[in-house]
Design brief:
The protein is mainly α and 245 residues long. It is built from seven helices and no strands. The termini are far apart.
Length: 245
């Protein structure tokens, strides 16, 4: 009887231990699964890629991450104003973006069909982030374009007002001063229009660069989904679901 009771107690203890092991294991799996649902833009996603990439590829990923950080610094340093100085700033950003894409593509092509799943995700991440930064630059240029348009409209309104005074010069005492102000505002308005034209050209260049980068990034996303079995398909499905949201 005592032996039966002892066996029952042991059985209950073993059963409880099994339940606890299963519960802990399930929580770990759930936690791991949730970690893969980080936003593609988040630091957690970026860190997860790096930590899961084999050591032999981590240096390459780190290098590309640094290139993106350098681009960030250039974008932050270039304080835009309503003048032609921003033209060189945009050229510098686009040049660095093109250089970064060349390096991403070089790593991609050299390692095709040989590298680890997470290495390719890292390359996709850098490609995606580069497109994101070009989008930020495009939005910045659009804001500048809008500010230039507002400044042109305001200046043109002032010009029209002064023109009205000049036409009625018989009733204006200081007509010489009015004419000088009118000429100065005309020069200012011409300069603003030239700067806006440059800004429009920059917007077009930036948009083309961004759109091209988006196409390349989508091709890399689809490559991963096609060439890395079930985990590649699942990863691509998660990316597509995030895009839809």
């Amino acid at each position: 009887m005592n032996s039966y009771i002892l066996l029952s107690i042991v059985g209950v203890v073993v059963f409880i231990i099994i339940i606890l092991i299963f519960s802990i294991s399930n929580r770990k799996r759930k936690s791991k699964r949730n970690s893969s649902y980080h936003s593609i833009r988040s630091k957690e996603y970026r860190t997860e890629i790096y930590n899961n990439t084999p050591e032999e590829y981590q240096q390459s990923i780190r290098y590309l991450y640094n290139r993106l950080e350098q681009l960030d610094e250039v974008m932050a340093r270039n304080n835009r104003s309503l003048n032609a100085q921003s033209e060189q700033a945009v050229k510098d950003i686009l040049r660095r973006a093109v250089e970064a894409e060349k390096e991403i593509n070089q790593y991609w092509e050299l390692s095709k069909r040989k590298a680890d799943f997470y290495y390719y995700i890292g390359l996709h991440y850098t490609s995606f982030t580069l497109a994101d930064k070009l989008t930020e630059e495009l939005e910045s240029l659009r804001k500048i374009y809008g500010m230039l348009s507002d400044a042109i409209n305001k200046t043109q309104s002032q010009i029209n007002g002064l023109k009205g005074k000049i036409n009625g010069s018989n009733t204006v005492a200081n007509i010489g001063q009015v004419k000088r102000e009118h000429q100065e505002l005309c020069r200012k308005c011409d300069a603003l229009r030239k700067t806006r034209k440059i800004c429009a050209e920059q917007m077009e260049d930036c948009k083309k660069c961004r759109d091209r980068q988006n196409v390349i990034t989508a091709q890399r996303r689809d490559y991963i989904g096609k060439n890395f079995g079930k985990k590649g398909k699942q990863w691509r499905n998660r990316i597509m679901a995030k895009h839809k949201r």
